[in-house]
Amino acid sequence: MDDNRHSLTPQKRPHDGYIWRFNKRTPDSGGGSSRNTVSGGSRRVYKLKILLPNGMTVSVKIPEGTESITVKDLANRVKEQCHRAIQAEKTSNPKKSVKWDADLCFIDDYDRVFRNCLKLTKLEMNRVYNLRLDDGSPPATIYENMWDLTPDTELLMELPEEYTFETALADLIDNSLQAVWANDESDLRLISVEISNEKISIFDSGPGMDSTSIEKWGKMGASLHRAYKTQAIGGKPPYLKPAFGMFGYGGFIASMHLGRRTEVSSKTKSGKKVYMLHLERDALVSGSVSGSKACWRTYGGLRDPTNDELELSPGGSFTKVEIFEPKMRSANITRLKCKLKDIYFPYIQCDDLSKKGRTIMPIEFQVNGDDLAEIPGGEVALTNLASCNGPEFVLQIRFKLNHDNATMTTSQGTRSSNEANARLRCVYLPVKEASGKESIESVTKALSKIGYDHIEEFRSFRHVSCRRLGRLLPDARWAWLPFMDFRQRKTDRSQVFVKKSCMRVKCFIETDAGFSPTPSKTDFAHQNPFTTALRNLGSNQLSEKDSGVDIDIRRDGKSLNLTQLDKQYQLWLREMHERYDEEDNCGIDEPVLIVNPLNKKALHISRSSDVVRVHKAFRRNGKSWKSGQKIKILKGACAGFHNQNVYATFECILLEGFIEDAGGEFQNS
pTM for this structure? Predict the structure, then answer.
């Protein structure tokens, strides 16, 4: 085939800038930087990585100014490099011979054949391009030292804390989610997880990875998505822009935590072959050395896609991560499904993306063949079922570093953004008349049956859960935000209801990429000023000047100060309590009914001191009285109320005080 017909022209590709008809790669395994730019003092060369039919990998560098190179000249250079490498190895296992006298040609990743010469002028300097040498014999499927996974030395000093099984698995799923999100909405967006005692597999129908991307997948510090964090700041909640990558630890650290061996297979839509990357924990650890010259190299390979892979990826591209000899076996699959559904809930089913308010499923997410959108359980799903149908209390908040803090952050060279955004959604979980129990207790009991390890009760319930870019941060689970907590506040008698009603609220916080996570992505970065400002929302003890963050709070588009926030939240609590709590005598700080009070007129009690009117349903000891019904207070026998505090609601005023007359019996009038 005439190589002049295949000039090396660039093609536009989303997220990756320009990709050439030869696969671009990060600088070759000689310890070069993975950056795209080259410093002024660096030598500018063309870099080719040649995959030989005997399974060896040879790198060739051609100086700047060379417009083209013939196939014969390139083959001779490769032959010299190959002979030197074999002599340096001094191995007792001889390599398969390459037929150097055959009619040689080079083949790229798209199976284009070059028999005469290769034009170099269209190549980007100091980038690596893969070619396979064809001598007429069957090609190898595994290549030695194909991938250089040597991390930057400083990264080894800041590895994330120990993972749990779910955290490590979620890190790998993050990569798949970022991949399928790049697909068009009309394309299949599938993530399929299979877990057994022998293997863990994560398959996605995303765009796949070329040789550059697959090497970065296995290389610490070489995140594929770090540059897109700024694009995920702002926009509309729930901020479904899965640019999770920040540290470049995910794939490598997570896979090594989950099992002893990992195989990554990936194919792009235009590529003909599947690239493979092999990771073996023991080999990498034993082969690494201390110091800046540490070198982690591993096997790679090329193969054809299987029928099963093509069936799961109708678009022709995919990535599959397989982890063998998993460390954790006999996992509670039901609990795992529910936890994964919690972590990625808005990507599995979401009401915010449809203009008509319908629930849609952005991602098809399967675990062991089950669609997570169809399984019951999980904290989010159970909370939604238990909450009332009333309006939510929703706040839109914008955080912005003030001048002094912005200057400090920039000077320290941190990764923090100058802006962050959050949406707070408070839902009300009422007490139910049928059971007489708090809805929150029914949620925690159901989670306990599934096997959740954080068992909470009504009084110890964590009322705040946080997400970043739609992904749950499991450890960002807080008891309260200051504006939500009325338990210890001094309130007048007309506001006593808030002390128990505030305990029936669950707050879901959705944040954009302006908030920074911990390396393991289980919590917000603790010292980040936006984290501090969010956790202290509503507190009068931390001013905006002290926090270094300016906060703009809005509800229904209208700006609120802290006093207005407090007032509107109390009004919402009152509305939820009066409309949806079906039994008044549950909870804490029960008010009492003032029998024969002195201020009868103010309480709208009739002149006849023995009759009162119930504003809403009242239950006690199996008896009930409805709104508007008169209650006659008979003096004499106590009938179950003797020496007990009893209460009712009079004309929208909730009373609290002492019983003047301890005697009394309620009867229907």
Answer: 0.69
